[in-house]
Amino acid sequence: MKHNEEIHDEIGENHIGSCATNPVRDDAFAISDDEKIEKIKKDVENILLTLGMDLTDDSMKGTPNRVAKMFVKEIFGGLNPARKPKASTFDNNYKYGEMLVEKNIIVYSTCEHHLLPIIGRAHVAYISNGRVIGLSKMNRIVEYYSKRPQVQERLTMQIVQELQEALGTEDVACVIDAKHLCVNSRGISDIESSTVTSEFGGKFKDPQARREFLDYIKLETKF
């Protein structure tokens, strides 16, 4: 019989997600960003002191505050629904009816198991059923859902679901090809491997449409 700690370690080491939504508490936004920064600053300071770092050194003095601000306002900023981009859509007046593909959207995310970076590219496509969305909004949606502790499978699904809701169509697809530094820089330390995830909705479940999309992106991602 495995103990809970062993099970949790096994889940983390194998990068297995436990839920389709980010596990955020109900009281996650009960305090302000500034209050969060102050609390995290003290925690980072304690970690560094425990590791034996000299925080009186000029190079290290500001590190706890810098890390706390980065956590709250940058790399985990996508946890805050107030930062969710407005996905404005427009009438497809020019009646473009083929798939639109946005390739090579940069993904910077953070693995929720080891808090190490996930770095890669997202390829997103949709087929309009009467509405279109600005190209930069697709990038912003990818960025928003990336800026939180994540698993890549969930991130891929969230991007598709958000675009489906915004566009009012199931015909959305996303493929992400990314390196996980928790695999590349620790554990097995395989610096060459990357992880590919995909989510296909509506017409993209048809083999021909899926093949056309995959031909467009060719998965020749370079990091």
Automatic annotation (TrEMBL):
Zn(2+) binds at residues 111, 114, 182. PROSITE patterns: GTP_CYCLOHYDROL_1_1, GTP_CYCLOHYDROL_1_2. GO terms for molecular function: GTP binding; GTP cyclohydrolase I activity; zinc ion binding. Pathway: Cofactor biosynthesis; 7,8-dihydroneopterin triphosphate biosynthesis; 7,8-dihydroneopterin triphosphate from GTP: step 1/1. Residues 40-217 form the GTP cyclohydrolase I domain. Pfam families: GTP_cyclohydroI. Keywords: GTP-binding, Hydrolase, Metal-binding, Nucleotide-binding, One-carbon metabolism, Zinc. Its EC number is 3.5.4.16. The keyword Cell cycle does not apply. It is an enzyme of class 3 (hydrolase). The keyword GTP-binding applies. One of its GO terms (cellular component) is cytoplasm. PANTHER family: GTP CYCLOHYDROLASE 1 (PTHR11109:SF7), GTP CYCLOHYDROLASE I (PTHR11109). Belongs to the GTP cyclohydrolase I family. This is GTP cyclohydrolase 1. It comes from Flavobacterium degerlachei.
